[in-house]
């Protein structure tokens, strides 16, 4: 087994927790952290089969992995499981809020349960999870919270209304939390990740005319690099860094025309299938 160890890295010998860590980029981020010398990986996921498979795969490679079956929509379960994690491993040094869902249809077609589930998993859960682990990070004067948002947290799009709402919430909360940590001089770092579509099963069927869909391996490399560099934002591909500037510069109708029609964003979800 080959392990790339960076002795001066913030990752080496630390403990990390990843929600939604049993598959997709969550799993890939976990493996990357372990390969960089992470001491302990805590995985939260609600898919028991994938949780068992990923844990077995990583432990067979010689890594220390602690799996927890958690439905992050259930706040009481989040609180009780967080207590178990802290009892087992102590302070979590790196928290990656990764769990998320999308309902790809027009708002009027959403059920009330669709709305509640999307906001609970994509927005509320991140805050509840962070609330449980942040105090210990502040006490030890170090830590890093990574919140996986989306470029949809900056740009509206048809067939994504509630998903967009949840990601706008994440972007706003995450950056506000960063400012609070900086004002209090806690040395707890906050990174907000706003990628374009990533080619995982979650976004199966999406189409992009000009902006490249991000490969999972590329997304993971950029996120892990962002942790190592204490990046405030990790955006991908590079054009996403220009979105706030372009949106602020152009009148709304012109922005809709350029981004929505010319770049094809407003039609990107027409063939959406997603993950079952």
Features:
276 residues, Rossmann fold, globular
Would you mind describing this structure in some detail?
- The chain has 276 residues and is an alpha/beta fold.
- The chain has one domain: NAD(P)-binding Rossmann-like Domain (Rossmann fold).
- Helix content is 45%, strand content 14%.
- The protein has 8 helices and 7 strands, in the order E-H-E-H-E-H-E-H-E-H-E-H-E-H-H.
- A 7-stranded parallel beta sheet has the order 3-2-1-4-5-6-7, sandwiched between helices.
- Helix 1 links the parallel strand 1 and strand 2.
- Helix 1 packs across helix 6, helix 3 runs parallel beside helix 4 and helix 4 runs parallel beside helix 5.
- The radius of gyration is 18 Å and the shape is globular.
- The N terminus is likely disordered.
Class by SSE composition: alpha/beta
Task: Calculate the terminal CA-CA distance, rounded to whole Å.
Answer: 34 Å
What fraction strand? Answer: 5-15%
Q: What would CATH call the homologous superfamily?
A: NAD(P)-binding Rossmann-like Domain
CATH-defined architecture: 3-Layer(aba) Sandwich
């Amino acid at each position: 087994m080959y392990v790339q160890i960076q002795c001066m890295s913030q990752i080496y010998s630390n403990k990390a927790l990843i929600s939604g860590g049993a598959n997709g980029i969550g799993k890939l981020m976990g493996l990357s952290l372990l390969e960089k010398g992470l001491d302990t990986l805590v995985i939260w996921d609600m898919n028991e089969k994938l949780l068992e498979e990923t844990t077995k795969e990583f432990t067979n490679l010689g890594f220390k992995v602690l799996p927890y079956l958690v439905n992050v929509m259930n706040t009481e379960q989040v609180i009780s499981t967080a207590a178990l994690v802290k009892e087992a491993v102590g302070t979590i040094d790196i928290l990656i809020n990764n769990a998320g869902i999308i309902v790809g249809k027009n708002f009027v077609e959403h059920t009330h349960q669709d709305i509640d589930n999307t906001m609970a998993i994509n927005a509320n859960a991140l805050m509840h999870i962070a609330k449980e682990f942040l105090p210990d990070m502040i006490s030890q004067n170090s830590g890093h919270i990574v919140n996986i948002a989306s470029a949809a947290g900056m740009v509206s799009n048809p067939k994504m209304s509630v998903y967009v709402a949840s990601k706008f919430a994440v972007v706003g909360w995450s950056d506000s939390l960063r400012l609070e940590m900086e004002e209090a001089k806690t040395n707890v770092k906050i990174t907000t990740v706003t990628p374009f579509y990533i080619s995982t099963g979650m976004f199966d069927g999406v189409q992009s005319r000009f902006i490249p869909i991000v490969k999972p391996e590329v997304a993971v490399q950029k996120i892990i690099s962002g942790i190592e560099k204490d990046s405030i934002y990790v955006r991908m591909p590079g054009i996403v860094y220009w979105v706030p500037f372009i949106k602020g510069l152009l009148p709304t109708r012109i922005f809709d025309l350029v981004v929505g029609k010319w770049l094809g964003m407003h039609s990107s979800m027409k063939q959406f299938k997603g993950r079952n």
